[in-house]
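Sequence in, structure out. First:
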Amino acid sequence: MAWHSFTRLKRNNDGVTVVEFALITPVLLTLLLGAFDIGYSLYARGVLQGAIQKAARDSGLRVNAENAAEMDALVTQAVSQVMDADGENSIVYVRRSYTSFADVGDMEEFIDSDDDNVCDRNEPFEDTNGNNIWDEKGVAGQGGARATVLYSATFRYKRIFPIYRITGGSPFTTLVASTVLRNQPYAEENEAVVTAGHCTTEDE
């Protein structure tokens, strides 16, 4: 009798669907939250990139060349339509001007006498930005007429979908958008002044 009851219980499928649903639901919710989080991040990045490109084009005009703060405020305003850009969230803007598009992101030229790909040991370099330090070409700011400008924004915001609570990640994520444009020829272009410098090691 007992064996017959056990056999009948083993064949009973009542409640299987509920158990399967309970097992699948956490995984499904995690996947959905992850998809929503990625989708929202891509959307916010698109808004930020579009606002940066428009602000960069406007900044290249003479009327806006000296109003960097106003241009940044317009980007912040555009992003705020999607997500609050104040409080815990923040946007950091950086402008760097170069003499040409080819110089963007490049380090200053130097004579690598010891072939270690590092400017040190009193090796001479071309100090294109005049700061007496071997570093990236270009100077901070919008630059003058015809200057090539790298304009970037770093947006750090708190995730609106709590996927980080499930995965144990950071509640914040960071988006970076940038564009490179050339200022309008609204004035005479200043000649770049290149001076000679010498690299030293950190302990010198």
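Second:
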Amino acid sequence: MKPVEIHDGDHIGTVIVGGGQAGLAVSHELLAAGEDHVVLEKETVVHQWRDARWDNFTLVTPNWHCRLPGYVYEGPRPDGFMSRDEVHDWVRGYADSFDAPVVEGVTVTLVEQTGDEGYPFRLTTSAGTVTADRVVSATGGYHLPTFPGWAADLPEGITQIHSHDYRNSDQLPDGGVLVVGTGQSGTQIAEDLLIEGRTVHLALGNAPRVARFYRGMDCMTWLARMGVYDVTAETRGLAKRESTNHYVTGRDGGRDLDLRSFALRGMGLHGRALGVADGAVVFDDTVAEKLDYADSVAESIKNDIDAYIAREGIDAPVERRYEPVWTPTGDPGPLPLSDIGAVVWSNGFRSDWSWLGDLPVLDVEGHPAHRRGVTDVPGFYFLGLPWMHTWGSGRFLGIAEDARHLVADMVAHPTSVCP
């Protein structure tokens, strides 16, 4: 990494907003193409990997998935799962592996198209106003934690924390903990609390699950070999960008997250949380339905793997299929507020594109409007969004290809007309 500075009035060829793996990937490719640029990061490079994950976080994708332009995982555990700090150090090592021109501690608050003949973009930043021929948004798509409206109905004595800010059990007061949401964060945090001996209640969402291993190999390795991560958003439909990722864990070398087994260990499973009434959190009666759905998705993935093995003539061990270890016997009913001391909200994030101002790069629903990261505004690009081009686009596995595509477009369509 090559720390640089910007000053009020500077003109820069390309400004990359965001100093995570996506922004660094574009920087790597722009350097290779000899293109003038800077990376603006509002905090420190790749800080999110350390500052926005819990202490026992691990990747859910195998380490061999970790590959960026000119940089791949070369550690001793290609089929293992890096911890939070290991991921941070690996991506930080990427930043240090080449001379990415990075400006840390600078926030971009507004991007405008000036209409001037030579400088199409004006960026208002905490370090002053600069102009640029191109702008790349590499900030991802998950910006602001979300909370349901009824969170305000919980008594002040109950601690509320979002998964974004959860680090460990010691943050929370004594008593039971209600975790709301069963995406990757919610299920892993619920397990983390259960391991720590806490009384845990889990409000289920609609997330599917996937087995960790099947027929001798990690399921995500099977899916990669099958080309699933190369399937494009256009093929699956744009609605896919709103889908919830399958829950599984890489903890302790990787294993399934089976909510039914959590119930056998004492975790209270509830349907979707609806709100507070009569001194209790109330839920709908959908526990069985949600568990059956999650299991059906996991089994359908196994069906696809079976078909691939048979089609390709692969010699793989045969494995017995999953059988439910627990089934609900009825509606557990409301959860008295007196039984919990904290709520961990794991119900997602929303995007914040306010810094784009009136730039016409969002669709009518407020989503980035692009074709593989290229927008209708010449010189403005997105990178690192979930399902931006393929299922792999929001993951380490797909960033390199997407970054190369953007830079190829930049080189093929220069925007500056300055002498």
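Remark: The longest strand covers residues 128-137.
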